[in-house]
């Protein structure tokens, strides 16, 4: 099963970093958040990725071109030079990932539905595939997610969670008296879409001409047809929307990283 990662947006809310590189290449613990996401899927045996590139997409392509050399031990045989002036042999292949990666050019201004529509040609006729965002990590159980999707039999399953509250939850009576106060209560939060989606190929029929955000009209059409299920993830999830989120994730990484399930 292929994993489609939406990685083409401009990342304007983290412009301190995204002005220099695409948001999926912003690092946590010395590795791009894109790498962290791929490692989550890899830990469940999924190694086939389609990265939907857009803004500064050439940086993402360059990252994968160089990745093997950066991670592995490399031996250079200077006595047997090739036409480029040298030969090299990767001697520590176990330290590199067994990934197949397609970096698809999906356009600079393309909306999320259009990005998915543009990678249709890479998906098999009856193939299920997964979709997620290139800026969020979770300790989600991908195997349970896929089982849930197949049990429900819908076109699309999204993963949801109640995020950690950023504000206290207050209950007020009719007279204006505070009945209860819960500081950052997770149970009081609404469920939100966290990505980590599973779909069958019928999803493409709901994407229109691609000039829509996936999360708006296509989602609404799926819901209207009773073709969307929601997997409730009870564990950790965090997006990296801004520089404060990055600092938060960086601290978590140094403390052990709840999403490090590999």
TrEMBL record:
Pfam families: NTP_transferase. The keyword Nucleotidyltransferase applies. The gene is rfbF. This is Glucose-1-phosphate cytidylyltransferase. InterPro entries: G1P_cyt_trans (IPR046981), G1P_cyt_trans-like (IPR013446), NTP_transferase_dom (IPR005835), Nucleotide-diphossugar_trans (IPR029044). GO terms for molecular function: glucose-1-phosphate cytidylyltransferase activity. Residues 2-237 form the Nucleotidyl transferase domain. It is an enzyme of class 2 (transferase). NCBIfam families: G1P_cyt_trans. One of its GO terms (biological process) is O antigen biosynthetic process. Its EC number is 2.7.7.33. It comes from Sporofaciens musculi. Keywords: Nucleotidyltransferase, Transferase. Gene3D superfamilies: Spore Coat Polysaccharide Biosynthesis Protein SpsA, Chain A.
């Amino acid at each position: 099963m292929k994993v489609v990662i939406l990685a083409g947006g401009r990342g304007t809310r983290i412009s301190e970093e995204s002005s220099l590189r695409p948001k999926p290449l912003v690092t946590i613990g010395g590795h791009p958040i894109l790498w962290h996401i791929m490692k989550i899927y890899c830990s469940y045996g999924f190694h086939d990725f389609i990265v939907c590139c857009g803004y500064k997409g050439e940086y993402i392509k360059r990252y994968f071109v160089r990745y093997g050399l950066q991670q592995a031990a490399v031996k250079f045989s200077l006595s047997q030079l090739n036409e480029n002036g040298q030969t090299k042999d990767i001697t520590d292949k176990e330290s590199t990932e067994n990934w197949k990666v397609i970096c698809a050019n999906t356009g600079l201004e393309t909306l999320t539905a259009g990005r998915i529509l543009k990678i249709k040609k890479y998906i098999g006729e009856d193939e299920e595939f997964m979709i997620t965002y290139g800026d969020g990590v979770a300790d989600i159980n991908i195997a349970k997610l896929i089982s849930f999707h197949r049990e429900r039999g819908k076109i699309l399953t999204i993963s949801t969670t109640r995020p950690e509250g950023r504000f206290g939850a207050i209950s007020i009576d009719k007279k204006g008296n505070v009945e209860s106060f819960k500081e950052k209560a997770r149970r009081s939060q609404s469920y939100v879409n966290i990505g980590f989606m599973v779909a069958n190929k019928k999803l493409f029929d709901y994407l229109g001409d691609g000039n829509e955000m996936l999360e708006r009209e296509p989602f609404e059409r799926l819901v209207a047809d009773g073709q969307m299920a929601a997997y409730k993830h009870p564990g950790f999830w965090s997006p990296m929307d801004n520089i404060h989120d990055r600092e938060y994730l960086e601290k978590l990484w140094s403390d052990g990283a709840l999403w490090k399930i590999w």
